[in-house]
From TrEMBL:
Family of the protein in this entry: Belongs to the activator 1 small subunits family. RfcS subfamily.
Name of protein: Replication factor C small subunit
Keyword field contains Metal-binding: no
Domain AAA+ ATPase: residue ranges: 46-171
Binding site for ATP: G54, P55, A56, G57, V58, G59, K60, T61
GO molecular function, one term: ATP binding
Family annotation (Pfam families): AAA (PF00004), Rep_fac_C (PF08542)
Subunit-level organization: Heteromultimer composed of small subunits (RfcS) and large subunits (RfcL).
A biological process from GO: DNA-templated DNA replication
């Protein structure tokens, strides 16, 4: 979403991702297998260290806060410390805050909870230091670590935690939450508007809710036009046509479509790669074409992540599809 749209969406009003953040584990949608196990730990008063792994906007922080609210009720803020591991001031500041928190006096509870977001941003050395801190305070603190990839967390930490994998949220879960919020806010959303929000979100609930709020500012009725414009998402049919033209050997036309998406619609190259990746199997391609496209998407994704020019990579992807005309 563009910055202008984001600030427009939140101006003068409460931000909906906070207003509608689930307060209890029961209200966290789409991860029932996880939330039930977490409730079990709380009921048994036996919370281990936890590691939440998964993409952005799917409920990791929300679940951690819900755990604290369930354990401490009204006093959750005094007994829950939220830190970001990629704190610019460094791991020493993070460690000092953990120590101060763990040492300060307790209000009758056996332990307090420390939530460490982006734990996979820590270097291996910093993670080793964190592991020692976890051990030092394990009698009176429980850690909940959050990360995108559990493989980036060193084994000695993983083996001390119960690991939970939060997957991208399903279409139904996102559609349902979008409708609930729209109803509560008295906003009309068309069916294609809901579909577009679900598509643009790609499993990220935060994106879907922010998209809804931003689109609602612009118009009384949220439809797919509003959603695609405000979320800077290419329409699936534009992506599909671009790929089809390349596969048909029409490179110049395909490249022009790409340019219009990047320049006229202002869509980021990385987002186009992401959309291509999600849609490969909906394109009605032969097995061979799908495999070829997938291979090129993987290569372009890797290069863009490593810092290569997005437009060059996407054009090269289309060129290679056009050269291999079947
Ligand atoms: N499973 C869910 N059920 C209901 N709402 C959700 C869910 N997941 C996310 N949300 C909504 O999206 C917002 C952001 O979610 P949250 O902060 O939990 O994401 P996260 O997984 O911790 O992501 P990040 O890794 O980016 O911090 C929440 O405030 C809530 O409004």
């Amino acid at each position: 979403m563009s910055e202008a749209a984001e600030s427009e969406g939140s101006r003068g009003r409460e931000v909906w991702i906070e207003k509608y953040r689930p307060q209890t584990l029961e209200d966290v949608v789409g991860h029932e297998n996880i939330t039930e196990r977490l409730e079990h730990y709380i009921a048994k008063d036996d919370l281990p260290h936890l590691l939440f792994a998964g993409p952005a906007g799917v409920g990791k922080t929300t679940s951690a806060v819900a755990i604290a609210k369930s354990i401490y009720g009204e006093e959750w803020r005094e007994n829950f410390l939220e830190l970001n591991a990629s704190d610019q001031r460094g791991i020493d500041v993070v460690r000092d805050r953990i120590k101060n928190f763990a040492r300060s006096s307790f209000g009758g509870y056996d332990y307090r909870v420390i939530f460490l977001d982006e734990a996979d941003a820590l270097t291996n050395d910093a993670q080793s230091a964190l592991r020692r801190t976890m051990e030092q305070f394990s009698n009176n603190t429980r850690f909940i670590l959050s990360c995108n990839y559990s493989s980036r967390i060193i084994d000695p930490i993983q083996s001390r935690c119960a690991v939970f994998r939060f997957s991208p949220l399903g279409d139904d879960a996102i559609a349902q939450q979008v409708r609930i919020i729209a109803d509560a806010e008295g906003i009309e959303v068309t069916d294609d508007g809901v579909d577009a929000l679900v598509y643009a979100a790609g499993g990220d609930m935060r994106k879907a809710i922010n998209g809804l709020q931003a689109a609602a500012v612009l118009d009384e009725t949220v439809d797919e036009d509003a959603v695609f414009a405000i979320t800077s998402t290419a329409r699936p049919e534009d992506i599909k046509e671009m790929v089809q033209m390349a596969l048909d050997g029409e490179f110049t036309a395909s490249r022009a479509r790409l340019e219009s998406l990047l320049v006229d619609s202002g869509i980021a190259g990385g987002d186009i790669i992401d959309q291509l990746h999600r849609s490969v199997w909906e394109f009605d391609l032969t097995e061979r074409q799908a495999v070829r496209l997938m291979e090129r998407v993987g290569e372009a994704d890797y290069r863009i992540t490593a810092g290569a020019n997005e437009q060059v990579q996407l054009e090269a992807l289309l060129a290679s599809l056009a050269l291999n005309e079947e």
